[in-house]
Design goal:
The chain is an alpha/beta fold. Helices cover about 35% and strands about 20% of the residues. The protein has 7 helices and 9 strands. It has helices spanning about 20-30, 60-70, 90-95, 100, 120-130, 160-175, 185-190, and strands at about 5-10, 35-40, 75-80, 85, 105-110, 135, 140-145, 150, 155. The strands form 2 sheets. Strands 1, 2, 3, 4, 5, 6 and 7 form a 7-stranded mixed sheet that branches. The longest helix has 16 residues, at about 160-175. Pfam families: FMN_red. Belongs to the SsuE family. Isf subfamily.
């Protein structure tokens, strides 16, 4: 598994982001089983709102972001839940990607909520991945009550820690899985293809 490269895409822009802490734990676990890893922090990218009439090469750092996604064997998407879905920075980042970046790629999901479990955000990310013909790892990480989830820069709850570690290991284990046939959604999706 030493040739597996896992990229985590952080959809939170907050400096004290629970999402980022959890993704860092996922990546650390992937490294323990031999993967190389990278955290793509969207705070470092200039990504204007997606416009289908604008080429990706003329959209700030969108081409660099897409290249990072193409280099991954597994992508782990992480987002806080905002208004029952995932964050707009992550949505913009995904809009600049398409089949070239995600088709037949293994994807892990992680979502964080200030209140109850962020299941809708996970479902929405899963739907986007299905539309791009990605293979989504069945194991996912849902972190409720973000205000108490992190202590001293680490996940405070041993169960959450275990879930994050498991996702990191699964990201490596399933990096080369044989994907299922194309989904119905992917046939209907034109998205950012060619942009």
């Amino acid at each position: 598994m030493a040739d597996v490269h896992v990229v985590a895409l952080c959809g939170s822009l907050r400096d004290s982001s629970t999402t980022r802490v959890a993704l860092e734990r996922v990546l650390a676990a992937a490294e323990t089983v031999g993967a190389s890893t990278e955290l793509v922090d969207l705070r470092a990218y200039e990504l204007p709102m997606f416009d289908a009439d604008r080429d990706r090469s003329a959209a700030g750092d969108a081409e660099e972001l897409a290249a990072r996604m193409r280099e991954a064997d597994t992508v782990v998407l992480g987002s806080p839940m905002y208004h029952g879905s995932y964050s707009s920075p992550l949505k913009t980042a995904l809009d600049y990607c398409g089949f070239d970046e995600f088709e037949e790629t293994t994807v892990g999901l992680l979502a964080v909520s200030g209140g109850s479990f962020p299941v809708p955000a996970l479902e929405h990310m899963r739907s986007v991945c299905r539309a791009l013909n990605a293979w989504v790892i069945p194991h996912q990480v849902a972190i409720p009550n973000a205000h108490s989830a992190v202590e001293d820069g680490t996940l405070a709850d041993p169960d959450l820690e275990k879930r994050a570690v498991t996702l990191g290991r699964r990201a490596v284990q399933y990096a080369t899985i044989e994907p299922d046939p194309d989904s119905f959604e992917s046939d209907q999706n034109v998205g950012a293809e060619g942009k």
